[in-house]
Design goal:
Elements: E1 2-10, H1 16-26, H2 47-52, E2 59-65, E3 68-74, H3 82-89, E4 94-100, H4 107-119, E5 123-128, H5 137-147, E6 152-154, E7 156-159, E8 167-170, H6 176-183, H7 187-194, H8 201-213, E9 218-222, H9 231-241, E10 253-262, E11 265-274, E12 276-278, E13 282-283, E14 291-292, E15 295-300, E16 303-307, E17 309-311, E18 315-319, E19 328-329, E20 345-351, H10 357-370, E21 376-377, E22 384-389, H11 392-406, E23 410-417, E24 420-423, E25 426-431, E26 442-450, E27 457-460, H12 470-484, E28 493-494, E29 496-505, H13 524-542, E30 544-558, H14 562-571, E31 575-582, E32 585-593, H15 597-608, E33 614-623, H16 642-648
Parallel strand pairs: 1-3, 1-4, 4-5, 5-9, 6-9, 24-28, 27-29
Antiparallel strand pairs: 2-3, 7-8, 10-11, 10-19, 11-18, 12-17, 13-14, 15-16, 15-18, 20-22, 20-23, 21-22, 24-30, 25-26, 26-29, 30-32, 30-33, 31-32
Helix pairs in contact: 6-7, 12-13, 14-15
Bound molecules: guanosine-5'-triphosphate and magnesium ion (MG).
């Protein structure tokens, strides 16, 4: 059976979860559509999602339409959870972008549309909420054309718009407006149409399919996720016009896009691109040791069912693999990664009751495993948890999760702008085994070099394979990554390549008549603990530069306020790139350090009588010039004092 992995994506509250529920009902998977407002949907299954009526985690369900099996991925719309959407897009075959026909194109619609285009995901629009007062399908069609630069092909018309009785009527593929749109991108259809010869439905369908796959045209359906109007038609379009995921032969290749826990423990969710993965197969992730798959559950219309294997194209929840989000099995197809904006704020999490410190860390460690944004920083003396944030809702959600799941009440202190450190030059360092007070049974050399912006951290074993047991290479990488979470100025270091240039270990040994003896044999911890010492001196040599997030801003200013507002922006370090006059307003756009945004937001209402609206989005990181945003105190031993490190982390 053909299989389609379909994402449902949109701005917050556009109706993704309601539409997912309605599709389940339409396909006969549930006998009654669940409701977001009553907390009875299948995909908003976390307590917190049901209480708040918002989606926090992407969730998969499955339906069958004719010969086509569809995995539906319902995603969150709130910008605080954009990272979750980013992870989901990486494993999809196609997407439905839901746009409310009342609110129209919203900021997150634009962000998600750009991501879909960049990754090349074939898309269908669903113009939702035609049953609500204020709905205007023509307006939203024009908006997606102008604001998104998309070419929608509207395949339905609506009657009774804005009322509960609104109905949607299909438009035939050989109808004039459809053919006109398709003729724009298909020469064969254009040739017949322009010479007034009849255009056959099957030719239009073929041309339309091709244009959807190439993302030249976007089929659009209108309707209501609540009354079900237009949803049947959406199903037809999905089955008829979208390209199915191809199932390729070959060795298994997959991408891990989520991690969660159920009553039986930890599961990793992966999409298999090619081959087949069976229970008891041993799988290697990165440079680690091969680990056996102990259980496979595949998403099927009846639910998540335990199976002996998962095959190419499918999504499965797998137990046994210590995989992290974003890791790959085998060699997956290269997709254009799209980076949504990184979190630009950070805060320290503390337990309200100091006695719950350990319980808090245990809980946060699990949440960090499920959400890579929860950035836990620990050291021996003073445990502290720092999380990177997109916004206030994310904070609330984390606090509620900690209380619901682990019974720990937490509070946040000191929300700060999250800067990064970039490596300035090149630095090398080496620690030899048992020399100069090195207490660990390991020798290690590392070279750190600057890499282009956006590169992230790349670790290269750099030595011939087999020279060092894989477990020691993995432990070194772990130690390197942990050390880079705090650079010389206390910010995470990124955009660099770290190469292992030397290594030495003592093989497993035992004394006569005894078992393995750790005191005379190297263990993984020796490499994990030595790595930060070598990183610290290599970084000292390379040098780092603190960079702060810079936002792009847009603001419309009433004419009489222009002078005072521009003066304020200038004082706060803004750079104006563009201005345009529109009506009585001056549209101003430019860039501004994130750290200054709150001050502009606070001052605008008074300066403009509440008339100006400022929108900002992350743009890039730039070296701090002038006043550095406040930073968290650096934790752990002084990076320039090796002995202090050796004392702090004894062997
Ligand atoms: N009248 C009407 N209301 C709708 C429709 N679709 C969704 N709603 C309502 O809009 C609100 C948001 O719907 P959801 O389905 O939770 O939207 P969502 O896109 O999943 O929201 P997030 O996951 O939080 O981003 C709920 O109160 C729904 O009942 C529709 O077609 N018509
Ligand atoms: Mg939702």
């Amino acid at each position: 059976m053909a299989l389609l992995n379909l994402g449902i994506v949109a701005h917050v509250d556009a109706g993704k979860t309601s539409l997912t529920e309605r599709l389940l009902y339409e396909a006969g998977a549930v006998s009654e559509p669940g409701s977001v407002d009553a907390g009875t949907t299948r995909t908003d299954s976390m307590d917190l999602e049901r209480r708040r009526g918002i989606t926090i985690r992407a969730a998969v369900t499955s339906i069958t339409i004719g010969d086509l099996s569809i995995n539906l991925l319902d995603t969150p719309g709130h910008p605080d959870f954009i990272a979750e959407v980013e992870r989901s897009l990486a494993v999809l075959d196609a997407a439905v972008l839901v746009v409310s026909s009342v609110e129209g194109v919203q900021p997150q619609t634009v962000a998600i549309w750009r991501a879909l285009r960049r990754i090349g995901v074939p898309t269908v629009f669903f113009f939702n909420k035609v049953d609500r007062g204020g709905a205007d399908v023509d307006r939203v069609t024009a908006q997606v054309r102008h604001r998104l630069g998309a070419r929608p092909v509207l395949l339905g018309t609506v009657t009774g718009q804005g009322r509960r009785e609104a109905r949607v009527h299909p438009v035939d593929l050989d109808a004039e407006p459809v053919v006109a749109e398709v003729a724009e991108v298909d020469d064969a259809v254009a040739a017949r149409w322009l010479t007034d010869r009849p255009v056959r439905v099957r030719d239009v369908r073929r041309a339309l399919r091709r244009a959807v796959r190439r993302a030249e045209l976007v089929p659009a359906v209108c309707g209501s996720a609540i009354t079900g109007a237009g949803v049947r038609q959406l199903c037809d379009v999905l089955a008829d016009l979208l390209p199915y995921g191809e199932a390729r032969d070959g060795p298994p290749a997959g991408t891990v896009f989520a991690v969660d826990r159920d009553g039986h423990g930890r599961r990793v969710w992966l999409r298999l691109w090619s081959g087949r993965l069976r229970v008891r197969d041993r799988v290697r992730l990165g440079d680690g040791r091969p680990e056996p798959v102990t259980e496979i559950a595949v998403i099927e219309p009846e639910g998540v069912l335990v199976r002996r294997s998962v095959s190419a194209g499918q999504i499965a929840a797998v137990r046994g693999l210590p995989a992290r989000i974003g890791q790959h099995i085998g060699d997956p197809p290269r997709r254009h990664a799209y980076r949504f904006p990184p979190p630009t704020r950070q805060a320290v999490v503390e337990p309200v009751d100091p006695a719950q410190r350990l319980a808090m860390f245990a809980g946060l460690a699990e949440l960090a495993d499920e959400d890579p944004l929860v950035d836990l920083r620990l050291d021996e003396q003073q445990a502290e948890a720092v999380i990177r944030l997109h916004g206030e809702v994310q904070k609330e959600v984390l606090a509620a999760l900690m209380e619901d799941r682990y019974g720990v009440r937490v509070r946040f202190s000191g929300t700060l702008t999250a800067c990064i450190e970039r490596v300035a030059g090149t630095g090398s360092a080496e620690e030899r085994v048992r020399e100069r007070g090195n207490p660990y049974l390991a020798g290690l050399g590392l070279r750190i070099e600057a890499a282009p912006a956006g590169h992230g951290i790349e670790f290269r074993p750099g030595i011939e394979p087999g020279r060092l047991p894989p477990a020691f290479v993995a432990a070194t990488e772990e130690g390197v990554r942990a050390a880079l979470r705090q650079g010389r100025h206390g910010w995470p270091v990124t955009d660099c390549t770290v190469t292992m240039t030397a290594s030495r270990y003592w093989p497993r040994q035992s004394r006569p008549h005894q078992k393995f003896d750790k005191s005379i044999s190297t263990v993984a911890a020796d490499f994990r603990n030595l790595a930060p010492v070598v990183v610290a001196s290599a970084l000292r040599q390379a040098g780092t530069r603190v960079c702060q997030p810079i936002e792009r801003f847009d603001v419309d200013l009433p004419r009489h306020t222009v002078e005072t507002v521009l003066a304020l922006l200038g004082r706060l370090g803004a750079v104006v790139h563009d201005t345009a006059v529109a009506g009585g307003y001056l549209e101003v756009s430019g860039t501004l350090p994130s750290a200054r945004v709150p001050r502009v937001v606070a001052a605008l209402p008074d300066l403009t009588g509440g008339e100006a609206v400022l929108t900002t989005t992350f743009d890039h990181y730039a070296p701090v010039t002038g006043e550095e945003p406040p930073r968290l105190p650096r934790r752990g031993p002084d990076p320039d004092d090796r002995e202090a490190w050796f004392r702090a982390v004894p062997r």
